[in-house]
Amino acid sequence: MTPIRYGSHPSQFGELSTPRGPSPSTVVVVIHGGFWHQRYGLELGRPLAADLVAHGVRAFNVEYRRVAGGGGWPATGDDVLAAIDALDADVVTLGHSAGGHLAVWAAARHPRVVGAVAQAGVLDFRQHPRITRRAAELLGGTPEEVPERYAEASPAELLPIGPPLVLVHGEADEDVPVEQSTAFAAASGAELITLPGVGHLDLITPGAPAWETCRDAALRLAG
Question: What pTM did the predictor assign?
Answer without folding.
Answer: 0.97
